[in-house]
Design brief:
Radius of gyration: 13 Å
Distance between the termini: 38 Å
Number of domains: 1
Bound molecules: zinc ion
Largest sheet: 3 strands, antiparallel
Shape: globular
């Protein structure tokens, strides 16, 4: 079955943001494009506090290693997309307050 655009991909179990404690059980795409199956190493951004986390082999969130952060910092396209996502969360929070 092909996911609908903007669909969320359910995680195997409820996860907790490592920064703010928000519980979540699904992830979505920032641009509403069709969700794809999750995989180890995917980066996710908390929709409450914009913490940047990575999925482990069990698809649970974990912090990123220094090496992973270095690799990300060297990927200009990924950093541009990540900055856009973090900015969107902060704008969304500002609109709610
Ligand atoms: Zn959070």
């Amino acid at each position: 079955m092909t996911p609908e655009p903007g669909a969320r991909t359910r995680m195997p179990r409820t996860n907790t943001c490592l920064n703010c404690g928000l519980e979540f059980g699904a992830v979505g795409t920032p641009d509403g494009s069709a969700a794809r199956p999750l995989k180890e190493g995917d980066i996710t951004v908390c929709m409450n506090c914009a913490a940047v986390m990575m999925l482990d082999s069990d698809l649970n969130v974990r912090g990123m290693t220094d090496s992973e952060i270095e690799d990300l910092l060297c990927d200009r396209a990924a950093m541009t997309e990540l900055a856009r996502m973090v900015r969107a969360v902060h704008f969304m929070r500002h609109e709610q307050n």
